Amino acid sequence: MIKAGIMGATGYTGAELVRLLELHPEIETIFLDSRSYEGVRFDAIYPNLRSKVEDICRSINVDDVPEDTDIIFSALPHRVSQSKVLPLIKRGFRVIDFSADFRLREATIYEHWYETKHLDDRTLKKAVYGLPEWYADSIANAALVANPGCFPTSILLPLLPLLKEKRLHNKEIIIDSKTGVSGAGRSSSEVNIFSQVNENIKAYNIGKHRHTPEIEQELSLAAGSSVNILFTPHLIPIDRGILSTIVISAEGITRKDVETCYEAYYEKAPFIRILKEGYLPETKAVKGSNFCDIGFVIDSRSGKLVVVSAIDNLLKGSSSQAVQNMNVMFGLDERTGLDTAPIWP
Question: pTM of the entire structure?
């Protein structure tokens, strides 16, 4: 059995990770770290896991992590995570980090967007970006995997093949993404209280969302040249899910061109579902799963390609993608512990 520990287990993504690892046939979870709930049984915090996860949360210092731990998941917030991850890497542990602390390849870009100093530029450059459909070979041998953000996952998976194959002009990419309230986290704030979220949709952080440089970094690598995007996220009154709509110039491109491109890259990707003509993704069709659904329409009148993707923000946008990365790191089938159908309705 692979022995796993979770730092920051009691946030939404940490809790989903606990649930997934409980179902995983090759995993033994040996500690659940939480400063806020030290000494509390996990199923007292998350009643959906009654009779399934009875472990007591502990506040774990880095020096106290057992030597026989095979993999550590850090579901800690940005800034906090690097202070824990760096000493774990120095002790020789393999780590999957949920925060943004190791996603950006340049410390100066990280420091600009996250307004905090990065503690180790050398380790940052060694981290592997954890998008398994694209970086599986590097993930397999990585000591540190930077789990992608939820919005970037929903945007990169549909765009990377098209930019890699130079199918599209990359000078004007307009992205509209809508996310459920769980993306704001578990802590109560004005962002996620019921009376202000219910029956309300709002845009936020236009042009300055912190996922922007992560998206542009990976798109630029695929395109072989600098890519800039206009990214508008919206908060909508659903619990979970992301729907991203991407508009990009596509003069001279046919539906067959796009289908062939996706097939070449994702034919053997078990969690990417390319929808047939006449169908478009919806958040409910991926809820509770590791799937990313992708559909598209070519609008010949405007000369635009409109691509739509849907993911569960807590799963493919975070926790189940982390498990997929772990499976790759330990030579398991990517689908192990994840091959379940979405919940409907």
Answer: 0.98
